[in-house]
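Example (one chain per record):
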Amino acid sequence: MKKKRQDKILEIIEKNMVTTQEMLKQLLEDEGMSVTQATLSRDINELDLKKMPSPSGVNVYVRLPKPAFSYSPIFKDSVIDVEYSMNMVVIKCVTGMAQAVCAILDKMKRAEIIGTIAGDDTIFALMKNEAASAGFTEELKAVLSE
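Predicted structure:
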């Protein structure tokens, strides 16, 4: 039951701009799943859901991606900056290193990455949505600051 409920929560936040726990609780109930506030709070913590700004500027629940594996030293030594706009992540690299870094990203086979393109010093990663872009950018920046 727990797995089914948590899968439904992920489906709901993927399809809706869920701004509050109360809204999420109501959407679950609309799907025929009754849940207590305490259980919903535990599910949100276990699923590692965070609130991030949506395209309209409203904070909504999203699930930030987890690294599939640790980033190689090449990544940390080669990436200069990471930014995103809408569903595109732009990764600036040391000249000549973008293709190597891109190969690392491609090996990760992240579901939220639709595709990547690498030049000499820049990588464009097309993400499934803006929340995925924001989460992935935050993750990469955290790796760079380690």
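Caption: The CA atoms of residues 39 and 45 lie 10 Å apart.
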